Amino acid sequence: MEPDLALTLGVIVAMFSIPAVLSATSDGRTPRAPAVTILIAGVLILIAVSTKPGGYRIAQIPDIVIGVIAGFVS
User: Ramachandran region of residue 28, left (φ > 0), alpha (ψ -120 to 50) or beta?
Assistant: First the structure.
């Protein structure tokens, strides 16, 4: 898996797990499944950062995500 794709998947999974954590917490439930998805997102982002020579800067992330999505659309 190329690093840009892993980073994009990690960011998307993390974004979708935040509302699940908030929902479980506000209902008084233990957020087990959202915790697992956050762990998966973290592993994907860690894989992307460790396999990309030079790593990533925070300012690059939006351009990388848009580039990966545009690659799938076109």
Answer: left
This prediction has a pTM of 0.88
Could you give the CA distance from residue 7 to residue 5 in angstroms, rounded to a whole number?
A: 5
Region of residue 52 (phi > 0: left; psi between -120 and 50: alpha; otherwise: beta) = beta
User: In this structure, which amino acid lies at residue 60?
Assistant: Q
Give SS3 for 58. helix
Q: Which stretches within the chain are classed as H helix? A: 3-26, 32-51, 61-73
User: What is the Cα–Cα distance from 29 to 11, expressed in whole angstroms?
Assistant: 24
Report how many domains make up the chain: 1
Q: What is the pLDDT of residues 18-28, one digit of tens each?
A: 999 999 999 99
Range of the domain at 41: 3-73
